[in-house]
Amino acid sequence: MIDKLIAEKAVRINDIVESYLPPADGFNRTVCEAMAYSVEAGGKRLRPMLMEETYRLFGGKSEVIKPFMAAIEMIHTYSLIHDDLPALDNDDYRRGRKTSHVVFGEAMAILAGDALLNYAYETACKAFGMGEDIHAVASAMCVLAQKPGINGMIGGQVVDVEMTGKELSKEQLEYVYENKTGALIEASMMIGAILAGADEAKVAAVHKIASDVGMAFQIQDDILDVCGDSALLGKPTLSDEENGKVTYVTIHGIDESRRYVTELSERAVRELEEIGGDNEFLKELVIWLINRDK
Amino acid sequence: MIDKLIAEKAVRINDIVESYLPPADGFNRTVCEAMAYSVEAGGKRLRPMLMEETYRLFGGKSEVIKPFMAAIEMIHTYSLIHDDLPALDNDDYRRGRKTSHVVFGEAMAILAGDALLNYAYETACKAFGMGEDIHAVASAMCVLAQKPGINGMIGGQVVDVEMTGKELSKEQLEYVYENKTGALIEASMMIGAILAGADEAKVAAVHKIASDVGMAFQIQDDILDVCGDSALLGKPTLSDEENGKVTYVTIHGIDESRRYVTELSERAVRELEEIGGDNEFLKELVIWLINRDK
């Protein structure tokens, strides 16, 4: 049931995100095509979904959320394009599709990533012209600029890259999870709350919930890599072990990892209930995300 | 005289830009060091200089310009780091200094470029908290997001990369010049005008002036490559010819190029005078930029 609902919402979100992509009809055609190629490659659209559902939780009803939904997905996509580059993970396939540098060449993939990051801000700026509370839009913009950056996603990515093939400490691993995975989930939910006019205390509460969700989401990823069904996952399992990768599971063991995911999950749901508001789907989405089998 | 004044102003601008760089003291230390390495590599600081002087022309007097000055230089620097990468221009040296990927490796150079682009927006967002007119800051943010992007700098860069080794048409060459070089100069001057509270007509006038300045600046670069003094320039001349590069000079000839630079220069200065205001240095800076011998 929840799977079907998530899939339906993802289709609607695809339309929103794609409606903000630039037309590929000028001298810059190739980069626009490369941007669209990667954005349209699919994915769960979790970040814009969490953003929109948090926005609704706080009673948000306007279109102002849409450019931010598109922007967060563009930032997520740029990070995947650059992550897949030969100098980084050197992945030729993602979700069964050739990666950007395989299709467009390395130079264009670098530029397409740059272009998506930049265009995310250009897209979010459209929200300034929508007649909504300009202070809320400005606050949302600040979160959109901060969380993907050096004290957020890029910070986590840097440590991940530097420590490839080395022993990550517990603290470093936590830093990578909090930032590489967690930061964009935090940005998504915080922006939803901010744009709906939530006060500072509520935004802080959402921040904490999102942080738990991000951490649990990533640890569940590690658990699935060990215990998941590769047919359901659509990718091979045991890849972390094969790559000699330090994960939460290799450090803390499978039982402790499961226990911690449950703890984070219960806390996130409890705090979501404490916030109040009316969005049963968001609660179910959070539970699904954390306890998913794919 | 003007040379000395420009050099003095550049020193002050260096301090401003560097004051906005992040501290390199956390797990993300390496990327912060890589960001600083490239920002501190020097350069004329023309973009923040043009921004600040245009801000003064319209009577701007507050600190709000500073985060934007830092941001535009970060964006310029990121574009150089990515431009120098092996997959793009493959340059090991810039201004006599090893480029980012040579010092930090290719993966970190890609991330440092991403980080600078992202941090530019994070830095500019600090202007929202400075108590100035929030509508002006939002407008400035929109220009900062638009001009470096696919319909600006990246667009020009894409065509430049795609056409390497091929015959550029006149229209393509103009597109590259307008965007790869011109767009950030336009952003700089427009943001200065917007933050100082200039009205729409004045911002449009500044846009046009900046477009002329950018075009003349780039054509002068081509002229210097043919006729300049390599000792003054600090780089070898005739590199365009050697690389079989199509430039304004190779298409239109040296006499027409000089004539056009003079036309653009005279028009820019005349329009700057028509705007009024009081900034003799900005006028001299524009003349120097366009007619420079280095």
Can you characterise this structure?
- The structure is a homodimer of 294-residue chains.
- Chain A has 294 residues and is mainly alpha-helical.
- Chain A has one domain (2-291): Farnesyl Diphosphate Synthase (Orthogonal Bundle), CATH 1.10.600.10.
- Chain A contains 14 helices and 2 strands.
- The first copy, chain A, has helices at 2-19, 29-39, 46-57, 65-84, 100-104, 106-125, 134-146, 153-162, 170-195, 200-227, 230-233, 239-242, 248-275, 280-291, and strands at 93-94, 97-98.
- In chain A, strands 1-2 form a two-stranded antiparallel sheet.
- In chain A, β1 (93-94) and β2 (97-98) form a beta hairpin.
- In chain A, α8 (153-162) runs antiparallel to α9.
- Chain A is globular and about 50 Å long.
- Chains A and B meet through α2, α6, α7, α8 and α9 of A and α2, α6, α7, α8 and α9 of B.
Query: Please, what is the CATH homologous superfamily of chain A?
Result: Farnesyl Diphosphate Synthase
Q: Radius of gyration of chain A in whole Å, from Cα?
A: 19 Å
Share of residues in helices of chain A = over 70%
Compressed to H and E, one letter per element, the order of chain A equals HHHHEEHHHHHHHHHH
Secondary-structure class of chain A? mainly alpha
The quaternary organization reads as homodimer
End-to-end CA span of chain A: 15 Å
The largest chain-to-chain contact, stated as pair and per-chain residue counts, equals: A-B, 54 and 54 residues
How many domain regions of chain A?
Answer: 1
CATH topology of chain A: Farnesyl Diphosphate Synthase
Largest sheet of chain A: 2 strands, antiparallel
Supply the CATH architecture of chain A.
Answer: Orthogonal Bundle
Approximately how much beta-strand content do the residues of chain A carry? under 5%
Placed side by side, the strands forming the largest sheet of chain A appear as: 1-2
The tally of helices of chain A reads 14
Mean pLDDT of chain A: 93
CATH class of chain A: Mainly Alpha
Number of strands of chain A: 2
